[in-house]
Amino acid sequence: MPVDSSAVSRSPVSCPVPVGLGVWPGDAIGLRRRDAVLERLLWHGAGVGVRWIDTSHSDDGDIEQSLGRWLAALPEDAAPAVMTKGGVLPDGAECGGRGTACVLQPSVLQAHLDASLTALGLDAVDTFLLHHPDETGILIEESWSATASMAAAGKAARIGLCGFELDALQRCEAVRHVDVCMTRVDPFSLDAQLPLLTWCAAKGTDVIAWVAGDESLAFDPAYVGPLAGTQYDAPTRKLERVLSLSVSAEVAALGAVQSLARETGVTREAVVRAWLLSQPGVTGVVVGAESSAQLDRWLADEEFDLSKDAARRITAAGERCYSGPPIMSALIAAQGVGVGDGQAHGERRSPSGA
Fold it and tell me: What's the pLDDT at 331?
């Protein structure tokens, strides 16, 4: 099945409700691994107007093969744009005990994109993303040049980065424009994230924010979404994020969301969506929905927008974030977690530098 020539026009920035469905192989709950559950969710998404889907290459290819069977059953004019990622390999026991490693070697990226296209039954995808920073010493310029060549060969309409920091985007931009940046955006570390977001806005790079389908997990620092199997998913990295965040800050941010939803008569998901889209450069939100009901709530109230003052209420609530008491800092140190590592994803550095 060739890529629909109008796929680029369905990129998030042009959608009436710029919400895409995240179908990620390593997502924690894993219900979408069951073909029947995944198929029902996909057909429902098509019926309610979801026009783009985000997935990624996996070693077994199960998710993309299921997506491919569904795409083949769709009328061509109803096919959504597809985003996928490459660069995560099995094994990698030396990389934090995850059983995977992020390897952005050009041959790996080429193999992953080709495998994805075969599984999906497509000649090209709308967007191909490098899944996460390399762990093996490959220069990002080398990886990006190879990715640009694949785009020039017609295998992807757009290319981008997922889970990278600003320096990597700038280095890639010097080689070829970065079309898309997929990243976590939250009110706890927005001050650290703003340089990346504003740079993307200035360069015309679409920022896609990822979020859990369950709105109560919208700001959960332990939720990894599309970054399952990467460094971001390593137990020590999760521990660092969780222990550096005050639980009261997460509760306060969700409380602000709930209050705004009650005041405006919209779903809490619509409030989170509007907050994310109010941030610089953010043009789309990809949701790891596990059910049709979850997806419906993220798509509801499509014309809803937040005023600047309302958006600031959520940000201000989330900024009541602090590093944990000394016992937590000691636990982080005992686990061998380096705070500097977290800065790749805009995580807040503790005042003590612990």
Answer: 45
What 3-state class would DSSP assign to 283?
strand
pTM of the predicted protein model: 0.83
The strand pairing partners of 127, in sequence order, are 83, 158
What distance in Å separates the CA atoms of residue 130 and residue 197, rounded to the nearest whole number?
18
* Exposure of 163 in the CB half-sphere (CA atoms within 13 A): 23
CB-CB contact of 187 with 251 (8 Å): no
Note the pLDDT of residue 257. 95
Distance CA 203, CA 178 (A): 8
**Cβ atoms within 10 Å, residue 91:** 12
Instruction: List, in order, residues 6 or more apart from 249 with CB less than 8 Å away.
Output: 188, 317, 318, 319, 320, 321, 322
Which residue ranges form the domains of the chain, and what is each CATH number? 7-234+268-306 (3.20.20.100)
Residue among 152, 162, 175 nearest 104 (CA): 162
Cα separation, 305 vs 303, in Å, equals 6
Residues in the chain: 354
Question: Using an 8 Å Cβ cutoff, are 343 and 166 in contact?
Answer: no
